[in-house]
Amino acid sequence: LPDVIGVMPNAHHKLQTTRSWDYLGLPSDTPNNLLDKSNMGDGVIIGVIDTGIWPESKVFSDEGLGPIPSHWKGACESGDQFNATTHCNKKIIGARWFIDGYLAEAGQSFNISEHKEHLSARDATGHGTHVCSIAAGSYASNISYKGLSNGTVRGGAPRARLAMYKVCWNIFAISACTSADIFKAFDEAIHDGVDVLSVSLRSPFPLLPEVDGHNPIAIGSFHAVAKGIIVVSAAGNDGPLAQKVINTAPWILTVAASTTDRGFPTPITLGNNKTVLGQSMFTGKESGFTGLLYPEDQGLGHPLTSAGVCENLALNRSLVAGKVVLCFTAIALIDRENISSAVKAAGGVGVIVAKFPIDHMDPCSNNFPCIEVDYEDGTEILRYILSTRSPIVKLNPAKTHVGKPYYGKVAYFSSRGPNSIAPAILKPDIAAPGSNIFAATSPLNPLAEHGFMMTSGTSFATPHVSGIVALLRALHPHWSPAAMKSALVTTAWNTDRHGLPVFAEGSPRKLANPFDFGGGIVNPNDAAHPGLVYDMNRADYINYLCAMGYTNSAISQLTENPTACPNKKPSLLDVNLPSITIPSLRNSTSLTRTVTNVGPVNSVYEVAIEPPFGTAVLVRPSVLVFNSSAKRISFEVTVLSTRQMNSEYYFGSLAWINGVLAVRSPICVRASA
């Protein structure tokens, strides 16, 4: 057919609140912040490619919204338990669903009842609803999760409109999303007129070239960005291992997950009157004192055996019934449901899990008490058990606490750089709250509480940035996707909101670096007025593809235009990103950047350098003078090795300062082997 550009093999892909907006400096009751200046994103359309949407949720109310934006060309499509007339409104203005790719791949029909799915845009799992709620949910007051996190739930851009493109299907409790359906969703979203695309999906690892047909997110987002649509996508949930970040194309805004300054302390009172603070989402009644048990191997009669490992619990009902069980695990991201089920099946009334501490909580079903402590506290509890014949414990319900000792960190699960396919392209770009995020979900989700739940993942960090981008789009409608990304990266926080250093969860915890969180934790208000931006357009992205060494024919197929790379291969180091990454420094390396003034016409900026260890960084010119005729200025950066370095990366920064603003770019340098 004449309108078919190319044919690619089909493949499967995977899916990737109340406090977070206040934490990011966007409370509803503060005038003159970005939320206020942008009229809460009114008129901006956020497209979401995901699992669907639950339209009855109160966060999708259109009360107070004006007419549907005039540039909208999309539609709502009816289907199983989804009526376009009644379920779409001035908030949900688009709803489409795509399953032909999955059906062609599976080679069979789709049994709705077997998979508890809907052949429509209705959400069966809650993932897409959660994403939409975070990005653009309307105000819903007096919401809590079993009494925790009580408050008003809303999205980042409460007056923005939503268009759902359902591509993921609940197949035996696993979301199946195929390349063909994702391609079609991008195609329709671009045609429909969305302004922002939020894509909390991932391609299989290892990373594939952006020109490869198995990479629909990279290809679809290229065409979206070429049309001025900013695409925000998840960095992945394979942390804390290095080089596992995904969605690494330079035209994508790739989001890592951070925590906030909220915790759920849960007092554990021992029979010796000592109290240990754990973390949980247990909200039941205080239990009163009951028996406390650490499992022993009955054959050896010694407590320090595998019998006390949480994943290997083989419990004797006669010993466990009516007691709380203590166990230890070496796994940071535990399967709470399996552990609690084993204890419950043996008649236990609660479980205390001693583990490496991370700020990632999930509830246990039926509000079963499953409380986490670190190894130090777990060992203290074990010492108490061993010190008495009849150990007892009292479990108290969790409380919501904001502030000390809880601070923002890069979440344990968040995928880290460096970029494994293009090491000179820094990924992730930015971090946003993605741990313990409270938002709407499908009431079919077994862990939902009145249609809301708390969950974690870079999938939910992504719509935080999508909502912020919608606010920026409303305030600066003519900014390019690259300009918006630059504004976010160069103004991001490198310290917590309380001024403390940002750590990255792992074993052990360490100070976060650009491979953990890109430019830093997103700072919406400062991003609205960045001063300078590192802008890029379609031609710049084609230069990137040439620098990657892709063939002219492959690039032409991606761009849908005949493309010939220059005879001299461009350098990846010269891609005009708001960051600098040199993966192989010998003696010296030079590169260029160009900044565009988006602040006052007459502005002067001076350079400020924090060189990575073992390097010197020279910038020419070191002063940038902008006026009505000089709106874009290029500069050269030379990085020199000043001493012997090992093969690890070292980090620094380059900032342009005008006395008010600091336009900061991270620098990452590794010496050549």
Automatic annotation (TrEMBL):
SUPFAM superfamilies: Subtilisin-like. The active site is at D50, H127, S459. It comes from the Eukaryota. Residues 574-669 form the Subtilisin-like protease fibronectin type-III domain. Keywords: Hydrolase, Protease, Serine protease, Signal. InterPro entries: Peptidase_S8/S53_dom, Peptidase_S8/S53_dom_sf, Peptidase_S8_His-AS, Peptidase_S8_Ser-AS, Peptidase_S8_subtilisin-rel, Peptidases_S8_3, SBT, Subtilisin-like_FN3. The keyword Cell membrane does not apply. GO terms for molecular function: serine-type endopeptidase activity. Gene3D superfamilies: 2.60.40.2310, 3.50.30.30, Peptidase S8/S53 domain. The keyword Membrane does not apply. GO terms for biological process: proteolysis. Transmembrane segments: none annotated. Residues 41-495 form the Peptidase S8/S53 domain. Belongs to the peptidase S8 family. This is Subtilisin-like protease.
